[in-house]
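Why this split exists: single-chain examples teach little about how molecules sit against one another. For that reason, every record in the complexes split bundles all components of an assembly together and asks for one structure covering all of them. Below is a record exactly as it appears in the raw files.
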Amino acid sequence: GESVGLHLPTLSVQEGDNSIINCAYSNSASDYFIWYKQESGKGPQFIIDIRSNMDKRQGQRVTVLLNKTVKHLSLQIAATQPGDSAVYFCAGGSGTYKYIFGTGTRLKVLA
Amino acid sequence: ETGVTQTPRHLVMGMTNKKSLKCEQHLGHNAMYWYKQSAKKPLELMFVYNFKEQTENNSVPSRFSPECPNSSHLFLHLHTLQPEDSALYLCASSPRTSDPDTQYFGPGTRLTVL
């Protein structure tokens, strides 16, 4: 079946460094991707999205890269801060509301 | 503040109890969703409503009963639950179901079934 997975369950990054969180997907028909951030005790919070006609999109301190050839996307966080500590997961969709969600990578920011 | 609120935030119930979860969205969206989030598992879609009509029941046991009186409110009625139903239940909304729009989530209800 279709899957969306994250490469690492946990990522530890020094404060101030850049973070890169990866996600792979299996459905080549996926045309819309979202990154969510989920802090402890809270619901998932939208970070950034990207459609399949793009290979890069930038937001505030975040960049999403999409490589359709290898079915991979990544979330880059610049100058990681303690407030970035959370679980990050990607979701992929193909034309409808039905997303396939990844299991998440826990980002730990070290002081 | 995502514009999607859920109550209660925490709920502990016995297997014979009946309780309801409430979700309200203030985003003017027409689609609402219930998801189940269990530890170390991806989000599981449970129900979908589009313009108050249920468009998806993802093989959810009948002990979970959704209700959508209007596009802004969504309920999940619970009865005779099992301990394995303990999880975080998330409500989400999006402009519509026909397009792959961003879904905005509420904070969730942490449910514990004893």
